[in-house]
């Protein structure tokens, strides 16, 4: 009898240790929501809407939708939709044919806003070459100030899993990626391949700007001349860690205004990495509804102050922000 009980205790302890070591990997590669970050509000619904927050589009219940801040907008060329508008985290922005631009008005509420999360006007800055006067906002029923571009309300799409995805293009014959000027994006709607190539060449030559390789994985390794091997994202931008975060229990100390300067790294599939440790490679379900990639259970960020691939302007900022090694360690930190 004692032998059976002892064996049972050993197996239970081993199971707990495995769960802790895996940092939530037994939950489909996602850290369990009940063990990470700040506690969710009482009665909060289960995670949904493709990873953009459980309270997106909670219309009718009196709760304010957790809209994603627009941040620094950019224009990105895509094969599927031509030149599209992206938010500060690199996600494609969309417009809805059932909305109106004059006057600006959204027809996407409730369940619709779960599939098409609202983009708030917070911190919105126009892409290079786009008139700032095109940017505006419209007040939604819940009080959210939704970003508008040339009058059209802006959204993300819940099924866009990572920056660069354009899975919402043409959905229902009413949803389209937005061009930088607020019009519908479509292949060939940008500056044209020849003009785009010339512009890229000029930008690459300007001030010695370093162009990102065209075939980078979602996360990979770059050999920096000063820092050695560091992690970079698909665009070649340096990835950072915040010393005030913790890995287990997984918590973030970067919220609100902090995220304008330090956007989270969106989830990246393991098979879309190169040279990166997969130990503790899980998705962090943040209390603010965002999903964030981790290495060795540490949340990852980029820095808004880095303007081009190869920049490491975030290194050592405040004595708490550091580039990340392929194993998820801090590069250059004293401890």
UniProtKB/TrEMBL annotation:
UniProt region (Disordered), positions on chain: 178-209
Instruction: Enumerate the PROSITE patterns for this protein.
Output: PROKAR_LIPOPROTEIN (PS51257)
InterPro entries per UniProt? Lipoprotein_repeat (IPR005297), SCO0930-like (IPR047910)
Q: Where is the composition biased (Acidic residues)?
A: 196-209
**Top-level taxonomic group:** Bacteria
The leader peptide range reads 1-24
Q: Which UniProt keywords apply?
A: Lipoprotein, Signal
PANTHER family from the UniProt entry: BLL4220 PROTEIN
Q: What is this protein called?
A: SCO0930 family lipoprotein
Organism annotation? Streptomyces lichenis
């Amino acid at each position: 009898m004692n032998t059976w009980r002892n064996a049972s205790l050993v197996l239970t302890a081993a199971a707990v240790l495995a769960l802790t070591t895996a940092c939530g990997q037994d939950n489909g590669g996602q850290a369990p929501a009940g063990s990470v970050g700040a506690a969710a509000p009482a009665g909060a619904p289960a995670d949904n809407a493709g990873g953009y927050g459980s309270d997106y589009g909670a219309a009718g219940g009196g709760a304010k939708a957790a809209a994603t801040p627009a941040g620094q907008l950019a224009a990105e060329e895509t094969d599927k939709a031509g030149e599209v508008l992206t938010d500060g985290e690199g996600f494609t922005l969309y417009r809805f044919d059932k909305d109106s631009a004059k006057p600006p008005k959204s027809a996407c509420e409730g369940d619709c806003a779960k599939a098409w999360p609202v983009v708030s006007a917070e911190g919105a800055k126009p892409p290079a070459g786009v008139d700032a006067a095109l940017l505006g906002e419209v007040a939604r029923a819940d009080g959210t100030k939704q970003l508008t571009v040339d009058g059209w309300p802006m959204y993300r799409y819940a099924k866009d899993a990572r920056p660069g995805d354009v899975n919402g293009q043409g959905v229902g014959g009413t949803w389209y990626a937005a061009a930088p000027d607020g019009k519908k994006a479509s292949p060939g709607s940008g500056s044209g391949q020849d003009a785009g190539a010339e512009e890229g060449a000029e930008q690459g030559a300007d001030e010695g700007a370093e162009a990102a390789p065209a075939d980078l994985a979602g996360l990979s390794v770059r050999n920096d001349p000063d820092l050695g091997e560091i992690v970079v994202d698909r665009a070649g931008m340096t990835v950072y860690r915040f010393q005030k975060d913790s890995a287990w229990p997984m918590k973030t100390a970067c919220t609100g205004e902090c995220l304008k300067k330090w956007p989270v790294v969106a989830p990246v599939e393991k098979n879309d990495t190169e040279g990166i440790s997969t130990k503790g490679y899980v998705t962090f379900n943040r209390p603010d509804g965002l999903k964030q990639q981790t290495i060795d259970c540490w949340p990852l960020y980029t820095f808004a102050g880095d303007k081009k691939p190869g920049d490491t302007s975030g290194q050592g900022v405040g004595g708490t922000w550091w580039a990340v090694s392929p194993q998820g360690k801090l590069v250059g930190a004293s401890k």
